[in-house]
């Protein structure tokens, strides 16, 4: 009688691998863990595979889903550009302060405030471009374009508009 034709003991699995008690234990273990949620990190840890750093996991959007712009990141970016802008304005105020503010001094103060915001936007754009050069999946096209438009182009356009309004006011006043 060949091994394939041997009669199986009662309760043995059809595959010939485990007994009824082992199958019952497996089913019990599965049912006991059914209420708990398994995380990908726990599954990787159980399999002995390395867990990627959290920043890499969060930075990559799922395939087929549009990239979400994180509101907290944009808010912090806006605040940092504003702080750079205020630092430029404070530097102007402390170095060129006069008793009487002239139209040229007022324009210079406004331009320094706006140029500080543009400089902050350019610094963030360069940081995004460097991150994208290292790994294109980390920074989406929409994110980098949105950031450039909001933090560089729009303040630069406002800067030009303020300059034009000042020039028109100067010409009308004469």
Describe this structure in words.
- By secondary structure, this protein is an all-alpha fold.
- The radius of gyration is 32 Å and the shape is rod-shaped.
- Helix 5 (103-134) runs antiparallel to helix 6 (141-173).
- Helix content is 67%, strand content 0%.
- The protein has helices spanning 20-32, 40-47, 54-59, 71-95, 103-134, 141-173.
- The longest helix has 33 residues, at 141-173.
- It contains 6 helices and no strands.
Short account of what is shown:
The protein is mainly alpha-helical and about 170 residues long. It has helices at about 20-30, 40-45, 55-60, 70-95, 105-135, 140-174.
Number of helices: 6
What is the typical, i.e. mean, pLDDT? 76
Q: Give the SSE order as H and E letters.
A: HHHHHH
Count of β-strands: 0
Q: Main sheet, how many strands, which sense, barrel?
A: none
Shape: rod-shaped
Give structural attributes.
6 helices; mainly alpha; single chain; 174 residues
């Amino acid at each position: 009688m060949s091994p394939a034709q041997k009669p199986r003991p009662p309760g043995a699995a059809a595959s010939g691998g485990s007994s009824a008690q082992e199958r019952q234990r497996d089913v019990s273990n599965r049912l006991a863990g059914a209420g708990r949620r398994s995380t990908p990190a726990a599954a990787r840890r159980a399999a002995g595979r390395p867990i990627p750093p959290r920043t890499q996991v969060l930075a990559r959007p799922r395939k087929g889903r549009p990239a979400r712009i994180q509101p907290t990141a944009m808010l912090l970016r806006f605040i940092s550009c504003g702080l750079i802008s205020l630092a430029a304005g404070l530097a102007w105020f402390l170095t060129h302060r006069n008793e009487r503010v002239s139209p040229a001094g007022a324009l210079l103060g406004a331009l320094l405030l706006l140029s500080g915001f543009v400089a902050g936007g350019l610094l963030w754009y360069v940081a995004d471009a460097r991150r994208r050069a290292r790994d294109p999946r980390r920074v989406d096209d929409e994110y980098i374009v949105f950031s450039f438009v909001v933090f560089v182009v729009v303040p630069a356009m406002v800067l030009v508009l303020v300059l034009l309004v000042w020039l028109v006011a100067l010409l009308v006043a004469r």
